[in-house]
Amino acid sequence: xxxxxxxxxxxxxxxxxxxxxxxxxxxxxxxxxxxxxxxxxxxxxxxxxxxxxxxxxxxxxxxxxxxxxxxxxxxxxxxxxxxxxxxxxxxxxxxxxxxxxxxxxxxxxxxxxxxxxxxxxxxxxxxxxxxxxxxxxxxxxxxxxxxxxxxxxxxxxxxxxxxxxxxxxxxxxxxxxxxxxxxxxxxxxxxxxxxxxxxxxxxxxxxxxxxxxxxxxxxxxxxxxxxxxxxxxxxxxxxxxxxxxxxxxxxxxx
Length: 254
Ligand code: NI
Fold this sequence. Notes:
about 250 residues, alpha/beta, eight-stranded parallel sheet, 9 helices, 8 strands, globular, binds nickel (II) ion
């Protein structure tokens, strides 16, 4: 059974077939899906999916690219407290690829810290988005020794992964690892023990090879298990089993 630990089914690209697609997941070997929120509206939608589908769980929070229209962390807290299938604060973090303005980057760091404080207060793990902001993301992560979580769509170095493992974090990979230029990710996968790796699609983005360019869905998450199995020279079944266990452990799923 596969666990897609990061997929955005709130995205409009699923409007036409969302329910049928989601209902087909268990028969296709995808037994668990976690849908993170990116703002208040998508966090609410993530919660509604978790309440509709047995195999879905939610995370709630503000993505660093979604801070422009106001941030209501009290509402995020209320959602997390009211709904038992909210299992993380996320996705949160820093995105310096899309944000070049120094003041706005500082605001991203402020909101990232506030959401780490919230995760600590609620004893929830975090789902971290780090794009071109490795040093600052790591520094803020290390400020919160009581918070655990996962770095999703990991793009950092093996050295940074080592620091994150020491901080109790998991490392998660998308379809990027199936691309031809994935040399750095392959090095990280070799360096990180299997019991600290997770897999995800980041649907509808990042479709793995040989589906690159199409709308992604959890139906393709097996490609990440197969790729990690090849890199680590172990069976796909083993990768599937252990990455699912890792996700269940981090997100407290029985
Ligand atoms: Ni995402």
